[in-house]
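Postdoc handover notes: sequence design on the structure in folder B. Input tokens:
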């Protein structure tokens, strides 16, 4: 039965069956959150990409919809975005219907095989029934590769001050910005990043948006990177700065990571959500996504996270916290005390300490498998250790311990763990440090052990079982 299989996430979106990678086309429209996703409906490994589709009213419960975009003579349907074209700048609107427009990469596998350098081009599709059905534009592609092999993942938004669309595009080792009056004709504006940020791999899936910073506007540029992440393989870096409609100028040259764990990738934000910015990523890593031990489907998305600017001393960060909507599936929290107890997953653990000290939370089963999550005070690091988490031999680096820095140098600590049957997401210090990791125990984890140094006093320590979103 779908959604009841071993390791099937119970509070995360995953397709009913078959392969998924990146989230695509995330757009909020008429009370519905749309989530499209890289999808291969014929297999549980990556292949000719389609856009799968799911919808939600609350960012928690998802309904899978018919496939939105199929591959065609121009190629596979790679990652991209979707916008609400309120002013009908594209002219796709008919009879007063507002068009939703998807901007995606056409990846031509023939061109790639023949060794050409222009096999990734940007194309359009539109919907006049609020996202139910999609028609590809007959003038595709609208932005042709100038001879750059990695030329993909367009994220588009409306730039109100200059009344034009801005496309943020991943172009190999940098970001290229384009603008357009109508989504069909694109002009290059500028490039960013060749000499900045992490470059251990190719730049993919970017996003550019503004956030409020105490009444000021700051701009955030997300750049996904594969490989070269802080804990190996693929990961999401970001820059903070200013965007004037033509050019992105970073405030400084630091490399920042939105999630330090091994299993958040290709994350971007929903468009058309007003002042709120909601982020979601693919909950896997290209190092092993094709071989994780699930049978009928492969891979899931992270929970949606709300992004906010936070200052710590003179440093500035983008913090991520679980969206408040997730509280609706949380059952009554029970107080935990140090020691072991039986628990049921999925669930959420919340703790706070006035004087942070070493602690660990161990999830385990009676097969001796475990995942250990905690904080090391001396090193000022959070960690997730999945070395003995069950099935790990499908890839040599999967069994490992992953660490992330603490950014709040002193003072109280708060931490939440969103624990599903095969994943944990850690949010510390109001989302300043985030880590996501997946795991595959041979038997479900059903025990939780809380350990802390000395008599590290928890001001708060609770666990709440969560209802499955699939019932
Ligand atoms: C990122 C990515 C994108 C591409 C898509 C193909 O994970 O490689 O750059 O559009 O996946 O499925």
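Designed sequence:
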């Amino acid at each position: 039965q779908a959604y009841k299989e071993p390791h099937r996430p119970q509070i995360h979106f995953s397709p009913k069956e078959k392969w998924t990678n990146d989230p695509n086309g995330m757009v909020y429209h008429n009370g519905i959150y749309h989530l499209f996703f890289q999808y291969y409906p014929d297999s549980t490994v990556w292949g000719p990409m389609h856009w799968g589709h799911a919808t939600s009213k609350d960012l928690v419960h998802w309904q899978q919809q018919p496939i939105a975009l199929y591959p065609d003579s121009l190629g596979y349907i790679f990652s991209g975005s979707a916008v609400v074209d309120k002013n009908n700048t594209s002219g796709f609107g008919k009879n007063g219907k507002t068009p939703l427009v998807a901007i995606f990469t056409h990846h031509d596998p023939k061109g790639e095989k023949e060794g050409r350098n222009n096999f990734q081009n940007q194309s359009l599709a539109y919907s006049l029934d609020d996202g139910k059905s999609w028609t590809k534009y007959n003038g595709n592609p609208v932005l042709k590769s100038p001879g750059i092999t990695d030329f993909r993942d367009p994220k588009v938004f409306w730039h109100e001050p200059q009344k034009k669309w801005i496309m943020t595009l991943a172009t190999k080792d940098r970001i290229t910005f384009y603008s357009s009056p109508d989504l069909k004709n694109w002009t290059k504006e500028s490039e960013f990043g060749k000499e900045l940020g992490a470059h251990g791999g190719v730049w993919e899936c970017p996003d550019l948006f503004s956030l409020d910073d105490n009444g000021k506007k700051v701009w955030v540029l997300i750049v996904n990177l594969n490989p070269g992440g802080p804990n190996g393989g693929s990961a999401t870096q970001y820059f903070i700065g200013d965007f004037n409609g033509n050019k992105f100028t970073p405030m400084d040259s630091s490399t920042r990571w939105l999630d330090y764990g091994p299993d958040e990738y290709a994350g971007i934000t929903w468009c058309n959500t007003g002042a709120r910015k909601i982020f979601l990523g693919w909950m896997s890593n290209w190092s092993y996504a094709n071989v994780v031990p699930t049978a009928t489907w492969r891979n899931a998305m992270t929970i949606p996270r709300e992004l906010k600017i936070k200052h710590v001393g003179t440093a500035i960060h983008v913090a991520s916290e679980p969206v408040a909507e997730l509280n609706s599936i949380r059952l009554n929290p029970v107080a935990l005390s140090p020691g072991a107890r039986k628990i049921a997953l999925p669930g959420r653990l919340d703790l706070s300490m006035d004087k942070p000290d070493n602690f660990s939370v161990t999830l385990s089963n009676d097969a001796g498998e475990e995942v250990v999550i905690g904080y090391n005070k001396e090193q000022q690091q959070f960690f997730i250790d999945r070395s003995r988490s069950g099935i790990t031999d499908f890839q040599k680096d999967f069994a490992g311990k992953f660490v992330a820095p603490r950014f709040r140098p002193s003072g109280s600590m708060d931490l939440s763990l969103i624990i599903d049957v095969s994943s944990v997401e850690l949010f510390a210090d109001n989302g300043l440090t985030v880590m996501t990791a997946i795991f595959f125990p041979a038997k479900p984890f059903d025990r939780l052990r809380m350990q802390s140094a000395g008599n590290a006093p928890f001001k708060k320590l609770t666990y709440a079982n969560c209802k499955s979103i699939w019932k």
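Context for whoever picks this up: The mean pLDDT is 97. Don't rerun without checking with the PI first.
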